[in-house]
Amino acid sequence: MTDLRGAAGRGWFVAAILSGSFLLFLIQPMVARMALPRLGGAPAVWNSAMLVYQALLLVGYGYAHWLGRFRVRTQAAVHLGLLAVAALWLPIGLGTMQVPIGAQPALWVPWLLVAAIGPLFLAISAQAPLLQRWYAVASNGRDPYVLYAASNIGSFAGLIAYPLLVEPLLRLRSQSWLWTAGYAAVAVLVLACARRLPRGEATMVQATPAPAPIVRDWARWIVLALVPSGLMLATTTFLTTDIVAVPLLWVLPLGLYLLSFPVAFRASALLDDLLARCGPLVLLLFGATLVAGDQRLAYFNALIGLCLLFTVSVACHARLYAVRPAPERLTGFYLAMAVGGALGGVFAGLVAPVLFDWTYEYPLLILAAGLLIPQRPLAEPLARLWSSRWRVPVGLCLAAAVVLVVFLGVDARMLGPMHVQLAFVAVATIGLVTIGARWPFAVALSGGLFLFGGYAALQASLSGTRTRSYFGVYTVSDQPNERRLAHGTTLHGVQLKGARATHPTTYYQAGSGVGQAMQAAPALYGPEARIAVVGLGTGTLACYARPGQHWYFFEIDPAVVHLARDSGAFTFLRGCAPDARIIVGDARLRLAARPPASLDLLALDAFSSDAVPMHLMTAEAFKAYGRVLAPEGLLLVHISNRFLALGPVVAGAANAGGWQGLRLIHTPTAIERSDEGTVSDWIALSRSPRVLAELKARSAGWHPLVAETGFAGWTDDHASLVPVLRLFRSDDE
């Protein structure tokens, strides 16, 4: 029998598994970038794409599990054949197939993605479980689970490499050829591993065959994989909408989730003891604090949210490692993990936005983690208590005490102005005592989550002031003189009350770039000007509508349409432009369906929290805007952003499309600030010098748009956030 001896023999398997996982995490964002201009950014598109990826991953793991019934050299021959057949789909591309306007994403997205990458994704996704099984056979029964660390380190490397290196440096076509070269290298590594498999050996030689997993084993594996997977997505949603909307922040939760596997998939009594004692403590203290969501401590909250996710992920994955089956059963084990990961993603990414109007999945998954992770009492007397015959009555008494404290804590009349804080201290103290007693601890954890954030969230839900969609959580808040709409942490609109209800506010006041352009529209284009706005918000810009004008709003999120037009919460549309037409869908795709020269003025104001849809800012997108604008048409682009310097992006697109541009950074006066005016940054583009001269004559604040040396802007083939992150820029742009 062939036996792998030393690190050299194992190195082939490590390299093959690591490289395959690296490619797997490159292909997903790369294909997403290719598909974005063609499919648009509607949630149905990306929900369908996520389901396609999950389905292909499950099929890959199922294929590896099915292949395990054959002799290992037969497995190698079949898999190498699959790799060879899948290579016919190289280099990666979407071909020339175009998706019809209005086509159902649930039908077209799976077809497009499976046709583009299906066999490649299937072949690569099966590598980790399949090669681990081969290694166990070739090494004469050595533990293959340690190689799972290589899989997740490769995934983490791919996750980091794409946004920080591959996307900034390479065009999509070059990325595709790079992936092709990587695929060839992986195929060679798999062949090298296959050559080390024993001849004439069907399975590992064992005195007693390992028992087949029962339903309880499968259920445990699935649930232990589900909770950290769901919590990873819930943490991403919670941090980027309710805490701080920093671009690329989504990389951190996913990265920590992946790194938890190498930490957890190793035998360590010290780690097990540390997790059992400190894991519940982290849940109890950090979970409630984060759900409270104090915006004054946004970055601190983000940090503890990441710590909480990492702790739960390591604890659950360490428990998975502890209950792993024998190596000959590992493909079924990984299949169950894949099922759990997929279910967690479906719950947090697809089901929760439909069921909940807030990120309730986050505290629910924290509570589920409290029931799953191992627990050991913090002190010896507590260990004796929770192993004695008194554990049930004591647990019931402490649970009742938690309920009483929570009841007192939600009523300020009982405990005074610090009622919530005092109640939480009491609940946390009870929670420390109950660590090691799973159900009493779950009650204490529930009480903490309810007091710190849960109760307020339920009140907001019952009041009907909050709406949720796949784009995030929208909150309507009333103040004495105004009503506000926030998307996560980003203010999306303010309407004043009373006689000033139709006054433009925030970024859209009369002195802003868009305000001046809208006021100039009658002089520039006559009384029947055709005006369109990408991004509805509260409908503030409708205040500039005049009789005879034709207004159009393009909005991707039906929830925003409901808030602005149907809910009655905001009356800009009803009071100023009741006949305005609202087109729901991705603006770039919808504009492409319009006749040429059918608009006079187009305002681009599309934001998702504080991020900008990248496919609306490329040179090809600006070419589409130019097509629908009249020869003397005017394009307004809103680039106010806390984290991204978008001026160079627009300037690059303007140069590529032959536009001339002006820029106005408007700082509101004291009177404007009293009407909720905010600093705004707008760029005006036109191919007509006359139009821009008219704008400049209205305000000395307009200045020529200056391109940045060495930066050509974004295209559908090459775009990256890294060069425009303010964090990495020393200028004032």
Overview of the structural elements:
The protein is α/β, with parallel strands linked by helices and 733 residues long. 58% of the residues lie in helices and 10% in strands. It has an eight-stranded mixed sheet with strand order 7-6-5-8-9-11-10-12, sandwiched between helices. It has a four-stranded antiparallel sheet with strand order 1-2-3-4, sandwiched between helices. Strand 3 and strand 4 form a beta hairpin. Helix 8 (215-243) packs antiparallel against helix 11, helix 10 packs antiparallel against helix 11 (298-322) and helix 10 (269-292) packs parallel to helix 18. It is flat and about 85 Å long. The model is unreliable at 202-207 (pLDDT under 50).
Class of secondary structure makeup: alpha/beta
- Poorly predicted regions are 202-207
Strand order of the largest sheet: 7-6-5-8-9-11-10-12
What value does the Rg take, in angstroms?
29 Å
Report on the biggest sheet: 8 strands, mixed
- The N- to C-terminal Cα distance equals 66 Å
> Which outline best applies?
flat
Tell me the helix content.
Answer: 55-70%
- What fraction strand? 5-15%
Mean pLDDT, rounded to whole units?
A: 86
Our count of helices gives 26
Q: Based on DSSP secondary structure assignment, what is the total number of beta strands?
A: 12
Brief descriptors of the model:
single chain; 733 residues; alpha/beta; 8-stranded mixed sheet; 4-stranded antiparallel sheet; 12 strands; 10% strand; flat
